[in-house]
Amino acid sequence: MALMAGLRVPARALLRSGCWLRGAALAGAEAAAGLGAGVRRFGSQRVLVEPDPAAGVAVVKLKSPPVNSLSLELLTELVISLEKLDNDKTFRGIVLTSDLCGVFSAGLDLTELCGRSPAHYAEYWRALQELWLRLYLSGLVSVAAVNGASPAGGCLLCLSCDYRVLADSPSCVIGPNETRLGIVAPFWFKDCMVNTVGHRAAEQALQLGTLFPPAEALRVGLVDQVVPEDQVQSTALAAMARWLAIPDHARQLTKSMMRKPTADRLAKHREADVQSFVSFVSRDSIQKALQTYLEKLKQKG
Ligand SMILES: CCCCCCCC/C=C\C=C\CC(=O)SCCNC(=O)CCNC(=O)[C@H](O)C(C)(C)COP(=O)(O)OP(=O)(O)OC[C@H]1O[C@@H](n2cnc3c(N)ncnc32)[C@H](O)[C@@H]1OP(=O)(O)O
User: Would residue 178 show up in a list of annotated catalytic residues for this protein?
Assistant: First the structure.
């Protein structure tokens, strides 16, 4: 750990922020990255949006060190950015990626699920539902450029996109590891898994809490392409070009036809889903399991 201005800052976080600062330093090379003169990045503290209006594409980068865990703030900022892009006719597609080195998203922020009030759990779960519904049903083409580990809720984010490109590195594991924490993925995560990899593979992965290394993730169909780490974003953009070659109205109607029944299962029972999450996560046994897991993570660091 490094101590900075009285703040306990993990060395890994500094390394990672070095990684995204390096990205910021490359701002001068924005033209090379497709950002023309006068085109400005926008976004918020935890979500960086790099627009390429000429291509109709925005690269949306998660930048919430150390591990892009889905805090209430990150969920909220991501929903706002997606809403803005969805409502802006300039954009037809987004590439969702991480601005940190080695981690796409660590999934739900476990500190949001431990030792908080039922009202907080309910607010948190509503924000997660909101993000999932918005991303899953977005009219934009969404390509996940998965440049780091993506367990549990991180995997859900990827599955909500239309296409997934994963970096070929042993640390880039992806999958629904919830049961390993002693918790259960919500039914809408289960539905996304089933829709992507089929019932049998989803059942095994969900029960065993499997985190797939890249080659396995490709084999089961959890991701669509595995490429060297430095080619993840360019490959995602190339995939995007293929998807954008299809007329929007036809693609959007087809996407809706494929996804709406799954989304409706949650949309029609959102409040019941919130209540079952709150009562589940408030159980003493679940609180203990989550605390123990968090402590193990911290000790490992
Ligand atoms: C009856 C039915 C009812 C249905 C109800 C439904 C209930 C559903 C409930 C919950 C669903 C949950 C889904 C989830 O997403 S749970 C979260 C699962 N995530 C994980 O297991 C990932 C844990 N993290 C890791 O494996 C690693 O951190 C990794 C992402 C691989 C990165 O590794 P590394 O680079 O080595 O970084 P560190 O492990 O050292 O972590 C750095 C610091 O970040 C903290 N951390 C990590 N992950 C989280 C997290 N998810 N939330 C909060 N904090 C996290 C970690 O403790 C380190 O902190 P510190 O620096 O203070 O030591």
Answer: yes
Check if 177 is active-site. yes
Judge whether residue 21 has pLDDT over 60: no
Nearest by Cα to 160 from 73, 266, 56, 48: 266
Which residues are within 8 A (CB) of 227 and not within 5 positions of it... i.e. 6 or more apart? 165, 166, 167, 168, 235
Active site residue 108: yes
130-176: per-residue pLDDT in tens? 999 999 999 999 999 999 999 999 999 999 999 999 999 999 999 99
Tell the residue nearest (CA) to atom 2 of ligand 1.
184
137 classed as catalytic? no
Query: What ipTM was estimated for this complex?
Result: 0.97
12 lines ligand 1 (CB under 6 A): yes
The closest-lying atom of ligand 1 relative to the alpha carbon of residue 107 is: 15
Active-site position among 43, 93, 107, 153: 153
274 lines ligand 1 (CB under 6 A): no
User: What is the rounded distance in angstroms from the CA atom of residue 115 to the CA atom of residue 105?
Assistant: 22
Ligand 1 center–CA 159 separation, angstroms = 18
**DSSP strands (E only) in the chain:** 2-4, 7-9, 42-43, 47-52, 57-62, 93-98, 102-103, 141-146, 148-151, 163-167, 174-175, 225-227
Bond from prior residue into 66 cis (ω within 30 degrees of 0): yes
Pairwise CA distance, residues 234 & 34, whole Å: 11
Contacts of 295 (CB under 8 A, 6+ apart): none
The 10s digit of each residue's pLDDT in 67-88 is 999 999 999 999 999 999 999 9
